[in-house]
Fold each of these.
Amino acid sequence: MALWVLPFALLGMALVHFYPDSYQQDGGYHYFYARWAFEHPRNLVGVWARPLFTTLYALPARLGYPVAKLMTVVVSLATAWQTGRLARESGMKRAELAVPLLVLQPSFLLIFSDTMTEPLFALVLAVALRLHRAGRLSASMWVASLLPLARPEGFFVGVLWGLWVLFDPRAGRSLVLRSLSTLQLAGGVAAWWAAAYGLTGSPRFIIDNWPANWAGAAYGTGPLWHYWVVRNEILAGPALWILFGLGAVSLVLHRRALLPLACLALIAGLHSVFYRLGMFGSAGYARYLVCVAPPFALATLAGWNTVAHWLERVPGLVTRAAGAAVLVWAAVLCLKFVDRFGSSRDAGLVARTHAWFEAHPRPLKRLVFSQAYMAIVFGRDPAERPPFGADGEKNLELLRASPSGTLVFWDANTGPLFRHLGPADIERAGFRLLYDTGRQELRPLLPSLSDGSAPYWQEMYLYYKE
């Protein structure tokens, strides 16, 4: 298994180097919560900040954004390792293939070196599943109790886990004692509440801190079958989907890995319903299903073994070549997917704009920014930015009230889209243009693998208030 982990470790380091920022703003903001957790302890218990993620990343993040991203590589590799061990302990042949079948899921590789929270959720889930598979039900519940601290899907998985334990014949004891034992699944949330109360003095902090936009369709809605529409962002192409389907059927028929499959069905089903109804702020991102990447890998491996059994009489060289071709093609599709996001290319332009300011410095009292990476390269606490919302006029007033010595680092895409402020608005707020990169086409890093998407253009500005 280590022979698979090593090349993916090297790939992770390469991704950190060539894609220094997140593909979405979420990654940068999760880094902020961890980086400034000691200055703002409430970050450690914030709902959107994800307490388990922020606590684990608080020290790595203080060493810098690349170190935090490398921490995710470690978490992702640990998830792959744990998935391989789970496959082996479940009696599955070729268990080492669980490693590439997990990492070479397009959305998993997309955030393999990102500061997103889904890989950590997947790791905790894989460890809990291994403990449950080994019959260590109490330990598995304690570990599973940490899932809500990684992502809100953990609340629902906790309910499923509790029901599973109630009807697990290995649990022994009476139904009443089994029911009482499931209270362990509330251990993580109880610790979260206690920490939040201790840090904030408010017994209602978690409720009051619950994101307001999770109550409505802030990110739009889609059909119930949305995740089938984006299926190639979950598994890399038809071959792996066929293997997954065969494997899922095989596991059900042989009554193996049923809890992992149940977790997968639960998370996929919940997000399908949430996105359809506009609940929990679900945006329909395929990366949400990275949470259940280990069950996807297990089912795909089961399908791989099924096909290998059917082809036992075919020369080994032929079957190995076919298997290698499937994995190589999956790697190509995954790299194409990673490279398709134009926003991932903004980091280079941000760095060049920051370099210009370093060469032409001004007294800097406050940094106002439209992208998280802008504050990251400046090393500034994001709390110094005004509390912008979705109302452009209110944002303009907040900007106008900024003190002298405020630098506005803005871009032509994210700023107008999310803050409803463009260059003309910034000038109206009393700022003078210092630097403009001009409109530039940011090309893919791997043009030979380009999927033919429309060209991506970006422009960045520095404005200053004397």
Amino acid sequence: MVATSAIGFAIPIPFFSDFRPVIACIWGLLFVGGFVLPPVTGMMINSIDEQFRASGNSIANMIYNLCGYLPGPFIYGLVSQNFSHYYKNAAMAQLIYSVAIPVILLWIGVTI
């Protein structure tokens, strides 16, 4: 239910052109995301054998940084450069909606 409200905050962000609704939605997204991250991290850590939990957590954080945070600005700039003449908020839409891929993979992982 909390993740659903995060989706509700995220979907309209690229469609706003005014600063205030964008900030309000981003604030709501980060606030609700703070509720989602600890349980998901706990589920991940508990799925690993106890002797491998420390290294599993370290590897997961390394992957977060290398695959999530590091390429983010580059991809944002690339999309902004190549697609902003079609849709001025294309880079923001790509940034916000790219979260759908891990959510789908998480849902598949939980249901299987």
Amino acid sequence: MKALVYTAPWRVELQDLPEPPVRANECRVRVRAAGVCGSDLDGFLGRSKKRVPPLVLGHEFSGEIVETGREISDLQVGDAVAVYPLLACGQCVYCRSERHQICANRKVYGLDFHGALAEFVSAPRHCLFRLPAGMSFLEGALVEPLANAIHVMANFPAMEGKTGLIYGAGPIGLFVFLVAKHLGARRLAVVDLNPHRLAVLKSLGADLVIDASQQNPVEGVLQWAEGGVDFSVDAVGRSICRQNALACTAPGGKMVWIGLSEDLCEIDGRAIVTRELEIKGSYAYGLQDFSRSIAMIAQRILPLDSFIYETTLEQGQAVFEELASGQSPLVKAVFRI
């Protein structure tokens, strides 16, 4: 099969690989669309410790079932599916409470083994979600990143009328913005360093966009929000981003961190205590978040066409280099396979 293989930092190559075997409880999926995640880009840049070359990257994908294992009875060849890309043990306390994403023994496509930037992938039955009639494969590839945003926003149960800050205008930050807006956030600010991405967020209805290379983001947000935002989301993960998001959050407010660019950071502990701030981590999504994501996309309530860039595996090296530039106008790249 044709696959885009990460072979060394800053290098992906189109190669022929054997098709994956199909176990009794699995289906072979002909991948039709696969998105590029920021973590895939970290792998390409050599920053991801667990993404060891040679490796097929990719965990945001959909496709068509072309073979079913002997234990599969409720899916058929030809069914269109989105694939939940986390394989958990299914037995631990986290799996039993439907928090598979924090199972200590979880494995992830494109991280622990070959992923979705290839023609075929085998997946166990519990990871296969049938796509509704009329949903395209491209939309199916967006289920995974949107599920991240849905999981983030579940931490803010009362969104109606709130003011928020999203740090990072990449794909996850953009999806968080869309979900927050859909849930009734009154005003939303976005901070980034990429003017092209900020322009996209502005066109989608962001009330304030700040290029942190041109303006002090803390001063700008605090002036705009009159003392601070009700909630903030860091979708970058750098220490300065977390510090600034905290500084912009009003007393009694809540922050959620989903960005993973840096492991360690300094934060103002006194501000957390004296302003009674909450900080919560958010990693990936559960099976219910994944299902909710499919339902939301099927409702056609999100303007997905406005920021998707479609490409092919043959253009893989050029696309990864473009995204790695940090100033690319591309927001969400999706490979048609």
Amino acid sequence: MNQTDKLLDLLDIELPIIQAPMAGCSTPELVAAVANAGGLGSLACAMHSVEQMTKDAARIRAASNRSFMLSFFTHKPPGDTAAQERAWAQKLAPYYKEFGAEPPSAPPAGARRPFDEEYCDAVLKIAPKIAHFHFGMPKPELVKRLKDAGIVVLATGTTVAECKRVVELGAEAVVAQGFEAGGHRGIFLSKDTDIANQVGTMALVPQVVDAVKVPVIAAGGIADARGVAAAFALGASAASVGTAYLFTPEANVSKLHRAALKAAHDDSTVLTTLFTGRPARGIVNRFIRDMGPMNPDAPTFPNASNPLAPLRAAAEKSGTGDFSPLWSGQGAALARETTAAELTKNLAAGVREVVAAMAKAV
């Protein structure tokens, strides 16, 4: 059995297409549509309460009887960042004045939360086919509980060392996240602000394939069938696609974000710590231009979002996304508006066409 067949069997899916878990953007409808089309739908749970996660999982099950994945962050809690947040709010003061906003008196709802015992208890009750982790792996005892219950464990790595580490800690397949990927970098073995040595998808994937014995899922800059075909040529067993799914009606994407995605080019995005405190790839806007993308004054992840929340809300109300995290990978210009089911099927079918065309040209 080759690694792709092994992965399809492990995940109990028909097509080697995985909808990337995108916090704030993935919805039960998106997950179910991808699953019903034969791929793997993924619900990002880092911004969900246990109650919301449970409700969304029930909605997925009501719309699909296929495999789906719940995805979590595994960052360390930041501790007391009140002083950092006050200092950051002072730097934002001119913007508050411009938009008639006030600094927050309390953290906003939906703050990003690491996987813990409470999440684990709820996941065991929900019993999804797969659980996925970003920023490393959970505590060994939590991994054991999941695997003992028959839940498949996946994790992300951004370097060969990180991919090897998550496999050592129990991951049964690894997502090799190239530099081109949208959203948060899954960095966990080096400083999360040290991005100069991060690796592109083309260089990363084959090195990870050579370094681990589990199936490798390629992620980063893959938005059409050519990208999926390239991932397989590099030795990947499946492709994880994120930004292209933001163009579907099932995704939870604001009009401002959708407009920015449609206008994006290959050089429209940067990695920035401004919105959460950890590097994440998004479309350049006024806030990034003004403050610099990797600003050392941004509070520790995930609390950089706290002082920004009222400003973001006020700016969006006035019709601008200049203070919003417009997450996107470098391949946004390759994406097209279509349904999640059509995208999933087209990505898989298109791979065969691309491979056949390549074979003819040789």
